[in-house]
Amino acid sequence: MAPRKLAAGNWKMNGDLAALDQLDDMAAAAEGATCDVLICPPALLIHPMMARIGASDLLVGGQDCHHADKGAHTGDIAALQLRDAGATHVILGHSERRADHGETDAMVRAKAQAAHAAGLTAIICVGETEAERDADRTLDVIATQLAGSVPDGANARNTVLAYEPVWAIGTGRTPTLDQIAQVHALMRDHLSARLSDGADVALLYGGSVKPANAAEIFAIAHVNGALVGGASLKAADFVPIITALDAA
Ligand SMILES: O=C[C@H](O)COP(=O)(O)O
């Protein structure tokens, strides 16, 4: 089995009921596509999104989950609740969660285990800061995050990895194609060494992906899709990215 291609949109803390109008064209693009297409809206929008897309091929995901399956954790969402709402995936360890909420690799690993137990695919994010890249520490940082964040129970069906350089998120800046290739090769080597089906785990790139750069990024070895922020909010931007991945 080859890695399953995935175009994933992360709406972050953006969107409202009116934004669901964007889903019609995204769902149409997902129909018959060779890649999976996923939107991770704010959790409040998961239910209305499910109602809007009906039996479409468009997948729905969460942006975070708690490591516990239930209990006294005010403001948090359990993986089982995401699953119950219709989600198939959950983003974990995004750099904004790591920075805003102090999430550590160990916390991300525990969340991934909860996601797996609930039947969700965990999209585990890793990425270096600009200071770490400037200090030539990128590969060490990524290796440490992979070792700490990816649980031993990960496999190609329940886990996707996303490389998101922190300095490329929402900035319009992207690494060179060689820099992306270098990190994705490291991720593939790490997963292949640890997991029996590590060669089949989908690896996404994220950070200022847009229609103009999608095709060249998808042509890089071991890039099996994208985790898209800003350009996933409008169908006019996200559909061309889906089309580029479909053609890759
Ligand atoms: O989760 C998505 C990433 O943080 C990328 O965001 P961006 O496409 O707005 O740079």
Mind explaining what this structure looks like?
It holds the Pfam family TIM. Belongs to the triosephosphate isomerase family. The protein starts with 5 loop residues before the first strand and ends with a helix. The protein has one domain (6-247): Aldolase class I (TIM Barrel), CATH 3.20.20.70. The protein has ten helices and eight strands. An eight-stranded parallel β-barrel has the order 1-2-3-4-5-6-7-8, surrounded by eight helices. Helix content is 40%, strand content 15%. The radius of gyration is 17 Å and the shape is globular. It is of the alpha/beta class and 248 residues long. The model has no long low-confidence stretch (mean pLDDT 97). Helix 5 crosses helix 7. Bound molecules: glyceraldehyde-3-phosphate (G3H).
Estimate what percentage of residues fall within beta strands. 15-25%
The small molecules bound here are: glyceraldehyde-3-phosphate
CATH topology: TIM Barrel
Stretches with pLDDT under 50, minimum 5 residues: none
Radius of gyration: 17 Å
CATH superfamily: Aldolase class I
Helix content: 25-40%
Major beta sheet, strand line-up: 1-2-3-4-5-6-7-8
CATH classification class: Alpha Beta
